[in-house]
Design goal:
- By secondary structure, the chain is an all-alpha fold.
- The protein has 2 domains: about 70 residues, no CATH class; about 70 residues.
- Helices cover about 60% and strands about 0% of the residues.
- α5 crosses α8.
- The longest helix has 24 residues.
Length: about 180
């Protein structure tokens, strides 16, 4: 048994990972909180490492600090656990998909909810923007426009600027690049 790498991606369970860290280090006799902190942070990669590099200066130890926000264990679980949020988002997305289907059907585009979800997974924004949904007069258009905005924001969270290396914006939007010119 060894400590697995934590990437901070969908499907990873931060509580399970922190438990594995503690069990493994306890098994080999490491109980010092600062030492656990130092070892645990070396097992962060990808999104989790980038998050730690941004937030890490505010984190003091693994799990002993009186202030919860200074504990790596607490902050990781807080950052990467999304049980209630996911359920709320799921319901909201299902409702939005039903409304999209209704709008598209009114405009003569016959599509199932599963097909809409497929389009979302493969670039729904472009698909919708390629259609003339702006011409549809319906109060539900506002929801469709919001969904497109949400999708754009989700996509933006995952992009990384090639100029400055930060997440959340494209090269053409980079303030560092604009300041150089």
């Amino acid at each position: 048994m060894e400590i697995p790498i934590f990437y901070g991606i969908i499907g990873e369970n931060p509580e399970e990972w922190t438990d594995q860290v503690e069990k493994y280090l306890l098994k080999i006799g490491i109980e010092d909180d600062k030492r656990i902190f130092e070892i645990a942070k070396t097992h962060l990669l990808g999104n989790a490492l980038q998050w730690f590099e941004n937030e890490g200066m505010c984190i003091a130890d693994w799990n002993k600090n009186e202030i919860k926000d200074l504990r790596l264990k607490y902050r990781l679980i807080e950052e990467y656990s999304s049980t209630t949020e996911v359920k709320d988002d799921e319901d909201e997305i299902k409702e939005a998909v039903r409304k999209i289907k209704k709008i598209l059907n009114k405009s003569g585009v016959w599509i199932t909810e599963d097909e809409i979800i497929g389009k979302i997974n493969f670039g729904f924004t472009k698909y919708v923007l390629g259609m003339e949904y702006r011409n549809i007069k319906d109060k539900d258009c506002e929801i469709l426009s919001r969904l497109v905005g949400v999708i754009r924001n989700i996509k933006k969270k995952n992009v990384e600027c090639w100029t400055c290396g930060k997440k959340g914006h494209y090269v053409r939007e980079c303030l560092d690049d604009q300041n150089k010119n």
